[in-house]
Recover the amino acids of this structure.
């Protein structure tokens, strides 16, 4: 019964900031690469950011590089996405993803809505 629960989404004006959180339970968190994906209306789900099981090797989509920062706290089973300088095109449902690279198996959260609009 692995569970990933996102929080922190909401409505923000362009140029604003949000911090998304993902709480993981009932999994060995330190064994998973953690990723944030997003899916905008009418578009495919895309990888936004990822971080290794130990907190290294962060990667970002070109569209968010320099604005978003992914981090994790393995003592709390938490992963975060700090989003700054938000743009309307960042509007999407953001999903937390736990990736077990050893067995090629993923878990997904339910998603949290981020809306960037005036």
């Amino acid at each position: 019964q692995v569970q990933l629960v996102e929080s922190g989404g909401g409505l923000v004006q362009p140029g604003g900031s949000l911090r998304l959180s993902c709480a993981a339970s009932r999994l060995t968190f330190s064994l998973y690469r953690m990723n944030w994906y997003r899916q905008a209306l009418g578009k495919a789900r895309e990888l936004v950011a990822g971080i290794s099981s130990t907190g290294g090797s962060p990667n970002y989509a070109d569209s968010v590089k320099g604005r978003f920062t992914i981090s994790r706290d393995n003592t709390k089973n938490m992963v975060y996405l700090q989003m700054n300088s938000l743009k309307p095109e960042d509007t999407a449902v953001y999903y937390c993803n736990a990736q077990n690279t050893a067995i090629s198996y993923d878990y997904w959260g339910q998603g949290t809505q981020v809306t960037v609009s005036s």
User: Anything to note?
Assistant: The longest strand covers residues 92-100. The chain has no helices and eleven strands.
